[in-house]
Amino acid sequence: MGAASYLTDAYLRQAELSVVDAVDSTVELDPTIFCPTGGGQPHDTGTLTGPGSGSWAVLNVEKAGPRVLHHLDAPAPPAGSVVHARLDWPRRYAHMRYHTLLHILSGVVFRRYQAGITGGQIAEDRARMDFSIPEFDAALAHELIEEVNEVVRQDREVVVRYIDRAEAARDPTLVRVAPDLIPDVDQVRLIDIRGFDVQADGGTHVHRTSEVGEARLSKIENKGARNKRLYLVLPRPPVGEAADPVL
Fold it and tell me: Which of 26, 70, 110, 182 is buried deepest, with most CB atoms within 10 A?
């Protein structure tokens, strides 16, 4: 089974993929370009075409242990066939921008308070993140967002790299949601915002912070004595960013 392509190339929008398993309307693809739901990031959607004139909508994508399962709108193509997979790219790219935005926000809060993330959720048109911060008000929230936007304007490179699990276990700052948890894998995947922040993560991200665009704070909430929630929105991407590539 090949590695999931979205883990190494989030910009791969379409590809010829092999169906390695098919049951009813569910398939496993090798290597998939579709990112499953996880870590607050929703699953990708898209289409499969072929063999022949077959066409399927990819409605849901989920992890099942080491497998990535794709739920289709009709009985699946048979195992052993080859299909052309195409992402709903505007949806994927929105998730990438918001996911990188939340990493920047997490980095800003961590630098100030060494505070961990207590929750987060990404959508196509918004995102939220929860932090454990004792003192919090609207003025502080706007300060944090301005610091986030400064990192965006710095146009920092965002790269994927891997380290040994033992090395990751020695640095609890890499796993912000649950510092005592390291994924049960030999190699831990990191999202490195160069010169600013590094976190373990399994989702998709943009190549540079400038792609995120400047964030706007839409709402803040107190979710408990220490748990604070920020809601963020981004501008629409520049013209051309959502266009499909020529293969």
Answer: 70
